[in-house]
Design goal:
The complex is a heterodimer of chains A (565) and B (182).
Chain A (H helix, E strand, L loop, with lengths): L4 E3 L6 E3 H32 L8 H34 L8 H23 L17 H30 L9 H31 L8 H35 L6 H14 L16 H36 L8 H4 L6 H24 L13 H29 L7 H27 L22 H34 L8 E2 L10 H11 L5 H26 L3 E2 L1
Antiparallel strand pairs in A: 1-2, 1-3
Helix pairs in contact in A: 1-2, 1-3, 1-13, 2-3, 2-4, 2-5, 3-4, 4-5, 5-6, 5-7, 6-8, 6-10, 6-11, 7-8, 8-10, 8-15, 10-11, 10-12, 10-15, 11-12, 11-13, 12-13
Chain B lengths: L18 H27 L7 E4 L2 H15 E6 L5 E6 L5 E7 L2 E3 L1 E4 L5 E7 L4 E6 L3 E5 L3 E8 L4 E7 L11 E6 L1
Parallel strand pairs in B: 3-6, 4-7, 6-12
Antiparallel strand pairs in B: 1-10, 2-3, 4-5, 7-10, 8-9, 8-11, 11-12
Classes of the chains: A mainly alpha (565), B alpha+beta (182).
The structure holds protoporphyrin IX containing FE and copper (II) ion (CU) (2 copies).
């Protein structure tokens, strides 16, 4: 197919025509799902806020099912498709392989997403996004998800194809850039994940139309989490790649060590498919040996990988800042960082919140015995709102501030509001995560309409502190919705009414990445004068101390409950 | 040179790794091993481990055993807030008791003795349910088709609630059970 290449005058990035359109459509579709998901978020939070309790029970469960699907699956997946096309075609400066297949994938995802939402809002599929059998949804609930998965698989295949095109057309020399390597990790995990998903959702669909009689409830949970957990690893690989990308674009940061960062991505591929185990720690059907093996030996290598990225990303930022001359004391590099640039501030808040809140809580939650203190409590959504929201979603928001001018050729409007948005959203969401975890530590259940248990045969009074935590959840949840809504408003308004920017030179041939960029000479000598990163060492030390303390505090809690064996 | 360009050193895998990075990798590795060790340690020395005793079952089979247990061990009945009669079954110290999870109640009320171990058999008649003992905060998944035998020793006398914390449909929030510890 004939195509053209545009070189963006602001960033120097080169966009191939088909890839560019696909990125735009996928990103816009993602934003629209985020909008739907954001409305559901507001309804969910206003219902769980005990003083308000907005919706009746049936509507609450319907809306919560929609919230999980629209946010976790649709918003994230559509945006990730855009990221994959960007990481392949744009960063490698080559044409996109088989754009027709990519469009087919896109429309399958659109149709599937709408189909599942229709099923949910018809009211007969309030089964939550996990859809544990034997609770049954309407057939088109499952079919929609299957179509989305197939669409995403096609998009992933186009990504792999594009890497082949780049290699064949020699648009780059040497190894893949680190960010592309990270995206490749995400795509490989996505392939496994979607296959596991097919392995469970296809039979479940057949079961819902009566072709299969029964699906074992425990087996379902095991295979489903092969999809559900690994897909979170796609998100982590994607947002870590974006951290590196933003550090590179905004500050010219280069990885401290290519070998270490790539090795860490590789660990994700090797060890994460198996971590579905940590969703089953309090299940009957799995042996203790299986649980320990899968959560420790395998999972801790992936944890190690995240700890490595958690060091090398700020380390790269620090090194870049120090090269620029911000060398005073431990933290001048951090104080003088571009905090007024939402691309950077969003990325850094994402990094800190994901590391300190999401990472630590996740590992503690994933410890075999400690899991019993938190399983299915509000702690769980508290934890993952600090991973998939302050981590992934905020990273996606941050990169969008960069993409609007570069990809959509529009200037961002209301720059002052753009500046505060990452703080508003990132900080309120982090606090929301914390107070949700607080409520969960006191036992409050997730997916639960009524803390007063109306209609139950008995009464149970939650401690006052639990009500306090849930009230705070309400307040910070509403602020977070405002912060998220502000982002949607800024992006949509800028796309519609922002100042049009010059698209840059168009050519019908790609300009390969120069084999010997001028910068290379500089960085060559640069790598000889090794830059120390003492500030990052201190931050990492702080993370480690918090981690260890919190970990052992939870063993202490556990030691105080009833004896179990 | 930067993360969005091919590595400037063609042989990037031969570049040395700085000392601090090695140190951090080593810390992360050792910490992972310690966390691994903690789980094993707790299996040997800890007093809170989830039982591994599980049998495949059928709702009717489990219900039959549970009803037999209730028939033999009911010490009194109590009136629930909706006017229903609910049996209170006492599990003798060291003995076996059954707890049915079903839409939408926990059946029966159990009575235990502080400091005495009992075996509680858990299973569901229909969907997934969540055994969430409050305010102790022990949470165990209850899955249809699986009979989970959990040994528990309460430490303090009192009245405890069993909240259902796995979503199980429209009556989920009303699925509250009770355990007395004397
Ligand atoms: C914008 C502000 C948001 C607020 C205030 C919010 C609030 C909540 C709350 C309170 C719950 C727990 C409900 C319950 O268990 O009873 C929840 C569940 C959930 N949220 Fe969010 N959320 C927000 C954004 C997001 C985003 C951006 C994502 C994903 C990228 C997300 C993914 C999820 C998922 C997957 C669940 C679990 C649903 C389930 O239990 O089935 N949320 N959210
Ligand atoms: Cu239940
Ligand atoms: Cu329930």
């Amino acid at each position: 197919m004939a195509t053209t290449y545009r070189t963006c005058p602001i960033s120097g990035l080169q966009f191939e025509n088909h890839a560019e359109k696909l990125m735009r459509w996928n990103a816009v579709a993602g934003v629209l799902w985020l909008l739907v998901g954001g409305i559901t978020a507001l309804l969910v939070i206003l219902t769980r806020w005990p003083a308000i309790k907005l919706l009746p029970a049936d509507q609450f469960y319907t809306i919560l099912t929609a919230h999980g699907i629209d946010m976790l699956i649709l918003w994230i997946l559509f945006f990730e498709m855009a990221v994959l096309y960007f990481a392949s075609s744009t960063l490698l400066r080559c044409r996109l392989a088989t754009p027709k297949v990519a469009w087919l994938g896109f429309w399958l995802m659109v149709v599937g997403g709408i189909m599942t939402n229709v099923a949910i809002y018809q009211g007969s599929s309030s089964v939550m996004f996990t859809s544990y059998v034997p609770m049954q949804a309407a057939p088109h609930f499952y079919l929609g998800i299957i179509l989305v998965a197939v669409g995403a698989l096609l998009g992933t295949a186009v990504f792999f194809g594009t890497l082949v095109v780049a290699r064949k057309d020699k648009t780059y020399t040497g190894s893949l850039p680190l960010v592309v390597f990270g995206a490749l990790t995400a795509a490989i995990i996505a392939t496994f994940t979607i296959l596991a998903g097919a392995g469970i959702l296809v039979p479940t669909f057949f079961w819902s139309v009566g072709l299969i009689k029964e699906i074992d409830a425990q087996l379902y949970r095991m295979v489903w989490w092969g999809l559900g957990h690994s897909s979170q690893q796609i998100n982590v690989a994607a947002h870590v790649s974006i951290w590196y990308l933003i550090a590179a674009v905004v500050l010219g940061a280069k990885p401290l060590s290519e070998k270490v960062s790539r090795g860490a991505f590789l660990l994700y591929i090797l060890f994460l498919q198996l971590a579905s185990a940590h969703h089953l720690l309090s299940d009957p059907g799995m042996s203790a040996e299986w649980k320990v093996l899968n959560t420790s030996y395998f999972m801790y290598f992936a944890v190690m990988a995240s700890m490595i990225h958690g060091f090398t990303v700020p380390g790269a930022v620090e090194a870049a800042q120090r090269r620029k001359g911000f060398t005073n004391g431990l933290f001048e590099w951090l104080r003088k960082a571009p905090w007024g640039n939402p691309v950077f501030s969003g990325m850094f808040i994402s990094l800190v919140s994901f590391g300190f809140l999401g990472g630590i809580s996740g590992v503690v939650l994933g410890t075999e015995q400690i899991n019993m203190l938190m399983h299915n409590t509000f702690y769980v959504p508290g934890h993952f709102h600090t991973t998939v929201v302050t981590g992934t979603t905020l990273a996606f928001m941050a990169i969008t501030y960069l993409l609007v001018p570069v990809l959509f050729r529009r200037e961002m409007m209301f720059p002052k509001l753009c500046q505060i948005q990452p703080y508003l959203f990132g900080i309120s969401m982090s606090i929301l995560g914390l107070v949700m975890m607080g409520a969960g530590t006191l036992g409050v259940s997730r997916r639960h309409w009524d803390m007063a248990f109306s209609g139950a045969p008995f009464q149970y009074e939650w401690p006052g502190a639990a009500y306090l935590m849930m009230g705070l959840t309400g307040i910070f949840g509403v602020i977070a919705v405002i912060g998220g809504g502000l982002w949607i408003f800024l992006v949509v308004w800028s796309l519609l009414f922002g100042k049009k920017l010059d698209g840059g030179k168009v050519s019908d041939k790609p300009t390969p990445i120069p084999a010997n960029p001028i910068a290379q000479a500089a960085s060559h000598s640069g790598s000889n004068e090794h830059v120390n990163v003492p500030g990052t060492v201190v931050l990492a030390g702080l993370l480690f101390v918090c981690f260890v303390l919190y970990y052992f505090v939870n063993w202490k809690y556990l030691s105080e409950v009833w004896l179990l064996s | 040179m930067s993360a969005i360009l091919p590595p400037s050193e063609r042989l990037w895998w031969k570049q040395p790794i700085a000392g601090v990075e090695w140190a951090w990798i080593a810390i992360a590795f050792v910490w992972g091993m310690i966390m691994f060790g903690m789980m094993l340690y707790w299996h040997i020395y800890g007093k809170q481990n989830l039982s591994n005793e599980v049998y495949k079952t059928k709702p009717e089979m489990f219900a039959a055993k549970a009803e037999k247990f209730i028939a033999e061990n009911t010490i009194r009945t109590e009136k629930g807030l909706n006017g229903e009669e609910i049996p209170v079954a006492k599990i003798p110290p060291g003995g076996d008791g059954y707890l049915i999870a079903r839409l939408w109640n926990w059946h029966p009320i159990l009575e235990l003795e502080a400091g005495k171990e009992v075996k509680i058999h858990l299973s569901s008649m229909d969907y997934n349910h969540g055994f969430s003992l409050q305010p102790v905060n022990i949470n165990i998944q209850v899955i249809p088709g699986y009979e989970h035998v959990v040994k528990m020793t309460p430490i303090k006398a009192g009245t405890y609630a069993i909240v259902c914390n796995e979503y199980c449909g429209i009556g989920h929030h009303a699925m509250l059970g009770r355990i007395y510890v004397k």
